[in-house]
Amino acid sequence: NTKEATFVAKKHIDFTKIDINLLPTVMIVGRPNVGKSALFNRLIRRREALVYNTPDDHVTRDIREGLAKLGDLRFRVLDSAGLETEASSGSILSRTAGMTANVLTRSQFAIFLIDVRTGLHPLDKEVGKWLRRHAPGVNPIVAMNKSESLHYDTDSFAEGAMEAQILGFGEPIAISAETGLGMVALYEALRPMLEDYMVRVLDDNSSQDENFKPSSDCCKVDESKLPLQLAIVGRPNVGKSTILNTLLQEDRVLVGPEAGLTRDSVRAQFQYQGRTVYLVDTAGWLQRADRQKGPASLSVMQSRKNLMRAHVVALVLDAEEIAKARRSMTHAEVVIARRAVEEGRGLVVIVNKMDLLKGKRNSTLYKKVVEAVPQEIQMVMPQVTGIPVIFISAIEGRGRTAVMRQVIDTYDKWCLRLSTARLNRWLRKVMSRHSWKDQGAQTKIKYFTQVKARPPTFVAFLSGKTMLSDTYVKFLTKSLKEDFDLGGIPIRIMQRSVP
Ligand code: GDP
Ligand code: GDP
């Protein structure tokens, strides 16, 4: 593999150019007060962090996730500061049992912080045990934090370093999260590990390039195995965060206090039936799109960029609002649905808060919503037939399966590849259904092939110079959607004339 050869030979990966989703994750671990949050903040600087808020023994534990920049290194970093409580109240091991799977499935690497001023603490050994038990594959970098205090005192420094080796994770590095001392050492320790990791990941993904080569038959890469990127969009208060939480199966997701300062997309990640799902954040997107002036336009651009990062866009509507209003979708909601489709994203509509119409289950209201929404969507977006609409009540926590089933179904269809043989069998059938003469067209499709997936894109090769009429293209699109069950998928058909 030539690609691999280049990477290995160069052994220099430009992390700044790598898709954030492919970047490795580094977890910061350590007992309370060693400076985990301080290091986390230094690594992400002023960028936003995503906070997972997990209830456990009625004590709040936060896990923050952010994009770390360390020189030219980029990685995702997790701060596990919320994992532990006061040292006095028992073993970290027992308290964090429920959390381990959650955090560890998200990380490939760890920075194990200790406090050089206090020396090794029994709890440090517990953290070490915890790591060995729950993350046997992770070989943490031990970092003696608060080392700036030892600047002129080399004896205690050497003592600390020797002591740290008792943990069994090799020689420690000396850092100071507060002053930035030792960041070069941290960089040098991380770089080779992250680089090795990236070489492996990029090699795994290199075959993806084949997507963009016109290929006449099914692609070898199983694209549905790649991480699914999902954006949940909608007006404020429709229940986006509530849905997010049912998906993550954690209690609350909050954007940190610096939200609004930085408007980067923030992400969370979870596993669903063996698949990795990334949540692309577009929070408040409609709120900003509704406003017209000032810096808002910038945010709209940003949100649009985030929308582009999504494979599937889930547009959330509020059932109670729909029941009250004359129309199912506001102008802004129509705009975003159309934009998602224009950008080639798969679209799913979620009507949330159905519980508010319960009790009146047989009433006209409930029925009106269930019937009106799909119809109206079809009316405002005639170009995309069969957009899936699901009705849930996120607050009851039961929407997860319904949402994920639809999202995955849409994603798989978005990734669909049809062989040229199959398409041309299909085309013959379609042509027999629909006479050319009806269209008054002189053109004839010689053959039909899929050039690309994600979203499915087709080329009709025509004999003669006359292009297909719009009506005929619409007819072909509609037939493709119906025959291959591609509701909610933006399909593209291009035309080429062959001499
Ligand atoms: P965590 O509980 O591990 O997240 O620890 P924090 O980040 O909250 O830090 C605990 C305390 O140590 C705070 O008072 C920090 O200001 C302090 N601290 C963190 N890093 C350093 C450092 O490098 N040097 C010194 N002197 N203090 C630090
Ligand atoms: P966001 O602004 O779109 O993120 O909306 P939130 O998730 O913060 O929800 C807004 C409000 O709607 C909160 O008070 C939620 O408790 C409530 N809510 C969310 N989902 C449901 C639901 O399924 N049923 C009901 N009755 N209320 C809900």
UniProtKB/TrEMBL annotation:
<keyword id="KW-0547">Nucleotide-binding</keyword>
<feature type="domain" description="G">
    <location>
        <begin position="25"/>
        <end position="146"/>
    </location>
</feature>
<keyword id="KW-0677">Repeat</keyword>
<comment type="similarity">
    <text>Belongs to the TRAFAC class TrmE-Era-EngA-EngB-Septin-like GTPase superfamily. EngA (Der) GTPase family.</text>
</comment>
<feature type="domain" description="G">
    <location>
        <begin position="230"/>
        <end position="353"/>
    </location>
</feature>
<dbReference type="GO" id="GO:0042254">
    <property type="term" value="P:ribosome biogenesis"/>
</dbReference>
<dbReference type="GO" id="GO:0005525">
    <property type="term" value="F:GTP binding"/>
</dbReference>
<protein>
    <recommendedName>
        <fullName>GTPase Der</fullName>
    </recommendedName>
</protein>
<keyword id="KW-0342">GTP-binding</keyword>
<keyword id="KW-0690">Ribosome biogenesis</keyword>
<feature type="domain" description="GTPase Der C-terminal KH-domain-like">
    <location>
        <begin position="417"/>
        <end position="496"/>
    </location>
</feature>
